[in-house]
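User: Fold this; tokens only.

Assistant: Input:
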Amino acid sequence: MTRITSNQISTWQNLIVKSRKDTISTLCSRALCSPWTVATACAARIDQLRLRPGEIVVPCDLHVMGKGPAPDRTSSRVGGLPYRPIALDWPHHVDGVPYRFFCQFDFSKSRDLFSGLPGDILLVFTRDETLVDNVSDHLRFEWHPIDSATKLVEQGDIPKYEWWNFIGYGFPCRTFDFLDENAAQSAYYELLGDSSIVDSTPDQSPGRFVGFKIGGLPSLWGQDPLDLRWGNAEGEMKSLGSDQCYLGGIGIIFPESTCPLPWLNRAAQYSMSEATSGDRCLNLYDGFYLHFWLSSNGRVQWV
């Protein structure tokens, strides 16, 4: 499997029966990762568009996650082995501390979403487990082409760390984000139907996904402008300039504890305590979501 199909989406939707409110509310989930959650959210997104057929949408690949090492070296992932040539020296911060491999985005399966990219694989490294305010080199980025002749690093070639235990991988599911988030929100309320169950403004945008995502549009729904000071972005980035190419993002990853298929490769429910244990979930700092852009000069920027 390299891409999630519509047949798989339909199968996963039927894994668990929930109320209409719970089903539609997956559109605003902060943890889109399990097969059921992603499948249900993608189906609800299509229902939104049926209600607003004239709205502009931007395609994206939302990843359904598996737990543990990826079955191949190119797939998008968190932790584990990066797609990185062994001939390259391991990157170090200016203070001499080796960067830790954080995650990998596989753009080779999403090429149709972009007009041009510096490589097939984007690697993201981090200085430590905490996102640090206004530290521009806290994250490091590398682009690499996929080449079957390249000898890649193995586990023994990577520095050892005592933090960040989660390892997982993702396969892309094609869906889309709305350009007009207000139109998406009104369609979201319409899908909920019964006005008695319509909540106040949701915490997350019902028009733009915030999972492990490639492409689409950034969701800054209800974002405190002060949070945009975190990262390496310059002024035009923090005002979300039009010359920036949005690459995608990553945030909370933990499985739907009540679902019989919490991960691609696990067909058994977790208890809530198991689901949120250190090696079974990813929670950046205090529920942060990282956005990545490609600037006009080819530099990856993040907030």
